[in-house]
């Protein structure tokens, strides 16, 4: 399952969860600068990173393989469309910039991975239709 689809599935699961009979703890609002963002909020921020060669955001392209949040640290595991991608430094720098602007994060880690290899089938269907029209994406 792609990262994007797992986020959507998690969001729908949260929306459809039954209310708990357990009383909630009293409201203790954290200071705005210490509030920890959600994975969904981080993914929304990562959608602002556009692959300049393709013109689509890196989440829709399926380049984000994982996003973890733990103790104020966000770890983003991403790939490129090819190991020889000339834009890899630029994209990693843009991802780092997104993480730096997220309130509540103390640290951001960007990991470039190659397994599994990226393929056009990892692109979300809507973006795939934009890129390939009615044609089938190439198989590598």
Helicity, in percent? 25-40%
Beta strand count: 5
Number of helical segments with 4 or more residues: 4
**Oligomeric category:** single chain
Q: How far apart lie the N and C ends? A: 19 Å
> What is the CA-based Rg, rounded?
17 Å
- Mean residue pLDDT: 80
SSE string, helix = H, strand = E?
Answer: HHEEEEHEH
Order of strands in the sheet with most strands: 3-4-5
Class derived from helix and strand content: alpha+beta
Shape: elongated
Q: In what range is the share of β-strand residues?
A: 15-25%
Low-confidence stretches: 8-32
The largest pleated sheet is described as: 3 strands, mixed
Q: What is the element layout, followed by pairings?
A:
Layout (H helix, E strand, L loop, with lengths): L2 H14 L22 H8 L3 E2 L4 E2 L6 E7 L2 E6 L9 H13 L6 E6 L12 H8 L8
Parallel strand pairs: 4-5
Antiparallel strand pairs: 1-2, 3-4
């Amino acid at each position: 399952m792609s990262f994007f689809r797992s986020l959507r599935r998690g969001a729908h699961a949260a929306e459809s969860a039954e209310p708990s009979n357990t009383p909630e703890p009293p409201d203790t609002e954290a200071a705005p600068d210490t509030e920890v963002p959600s994975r969904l909020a981080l993914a929304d921020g990562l959608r602002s990173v556009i692959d300049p060669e393709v013109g689509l955001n890196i989440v829709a392209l399926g380049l984000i393989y994982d996003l973890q949040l733990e103790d104020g640290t966000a770890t983003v595991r991403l790939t490129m469309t090819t190991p020889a991608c000339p834009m890899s430094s630029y994209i990693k720098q843009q991802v780092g910039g997104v993480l730096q602007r997220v309130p509540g994060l103390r640290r951001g880690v960007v990991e470039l991975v190659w397994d599994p290899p990226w393929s056009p089938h990892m692109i979300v269907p809507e973006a795939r239709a934009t890129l390939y029209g009615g044609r089938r994406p190439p198989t590598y």
